Amino acid sequence: MHILGEINNLRAAQAFSDYLRSRGIENKLNPLEGKVQILILQVEYVSAAAEELQAFMNDPNDPKYLAASWQVNSDDNVKLSGNTLGSIIPQSRFKQTGPVTLGIMILCIVIYSFTNLFQTEIIYEWLAFPATINELSALSEPWRMLTPVFMHFGLMHIAFNLLWWFELGRIIETTESGWQLLMLLVIIGLFSNLWQYTMTGPNFGGLSGVVYGLMGYLWLYGKTNPTAGYQLRPQIVIMMIAWLVFCFIVLENIVANWAHLGGLVIGGLTGFGFGLLHRYSNKPAP
After folding, report:
1. What is the pLDDT of residue 24?
2. How far is 108 from 117, CA to CA, in rounded Å?
3. pLDDT, tens digit, 9 for 90 and up, residues 215-258
4. Range(s) within the chain of domains with CATH label 3.30.70.2350
5. Structure pTM?
6. What is the CATH number of domain 2-60?
């Protein structure tokens, strides 16, 4: 075990520790009075870890450090105390969130709020999936193949979906790009909507199919391209899949289960494909 260095803030030390783990560098935190030691467990990684520490000290506000805290298991989390010397990383996650992630959240909130405020279904009728795939509106209003993802039918529905969109979407946007997130939104949204329509008809809506797709993307991208730093926590995957199974069994006619499954499948396949492509094309890790 090698002492790499010290960081004078617990939150910052945990973010850096999680980032090292996402790069395959196992480490431990040793909290001292007013600072935290970074301990490297394998001597062969000391040199690489030292370079990462220097990069972190030069730019501790880089979003990749905050993203890593969500992506990896933090089994060695340090409890925060009142002795920290002031955060060098902004506590508000919104400050580290890109415009696409926030823009989609705002769009969903505006649509939901306007519809409930004025007690009108006109907007939902304009955004809903066509009654039949061959209906004229499917050709003249092609956006309706995608726009059901922006429709929500209750406070818990929109709150749950936007929470997961925020957490998963911002990882992709900050470590890859907003264009990548938009591309995934369109691909996953179209595929999950079509699958749900094929299985149950046109009466559905919500961002949850896309959320499952983003989870599948991050999960399999990290598995196929370990150097990218994408290592979604296994607990998240297990919980989301367990919820999917529960909904199929208990909430079969209430939840858009086929959109969830379709999103998970296409998102996972997309993550697998991009992971292999970037792994073998020597794409620099974000």
Report:
1. 82
2. 14
3. 999 988 888 877 665 567 777 788 888 888 887 887 766 778 88
4. 2-60
5. 0.64
6. 3.30.70.2350
CATH 1.20.1540.10, applies to 95-280: yes
Q: Which of 209, 200, 216 is nearest to 150 (CA)?
A: 209
What angle do the packed helices 63-71 and 10-22 form, to 10 degrees? 70
The number of beta carbons lying within 10 Å of the beta carbon of residue 50 is 15
Please work out, in degrees rounded to the nearest 5, the angle formed at the alpha carbon of residue 121 by the alpha carbons of 117 and 124.
105
Q: Which residues pair with 37 in a beta bridge?
A: 6, 30
Report the chain's mean pLDDT, rounded to a whole number: 78
Question: Where in the sequence numbering do the catalytic residues fall?
Answer: 208, 260
